[in-house]
Amino acid sequence: MKKLEDKIICECGDKSVKQAIEIFCSSSLPYKKAKKLVTQCNHAACCRGPLMRLFEMVKSGEIDYEEIDLLIEQIDTKKCDIKN
């Protein structure tokens, strides 16, 4: 099983949870702009749940990888603009 921090948080941007955390930590941008650094998603809502929650966790300083994993599993991949 993949480590939770190595899971892809959004298939569109192909960034892992760990990479998203690093980007959110190094940015002082608000969520909407910071999200664009993590993913090149054309659909505004496909990975919104896990990314927004992760952003909030990073800002609070406490990350619950199991909650993020659950949110990733709930993503509706039909909404994602996956590049093949």
Describe the structure.
The structure is a single chain. The chain is mostly helical. The chain has four helices and two strands. Strands 1-2 form a two-stranded antiparallel sheet.
Annotation keywords:
globular; 4 helices; single chain; 84 residues; mainly alpha; 2 strands; two-stranded antiparallel ribbon
Layout of helices and strands, plus pairs?
Elements: E1 8-10, E2 15-16, H1 17-26, H2 31-38, H3 48-60, H4 65-73
Antiparallel strand pairs: 1-2
One letter per element, helices H and strands E, the order comes to EEHHHH
Radius of gyration: 12 Å
**Structural domain count:** 1
Structural class: mainly alpha
Question: Strands across the major sheet, in which order?
Answer: 1-2
Q: Helical content, roughly? A: 40-55%
User: What general form does the structure show?
Assistant: globular
Tell me how many strands there are: 2
If you average the pLDDT, what whole number results? 84
Q: Beta-strand level of the residues, as a percent range?
A: 5-15%
Kindly summarize this structure in a few lines.
This protein is mostly helical and 84 residues long. Helix content is 48%, strand content 6%.
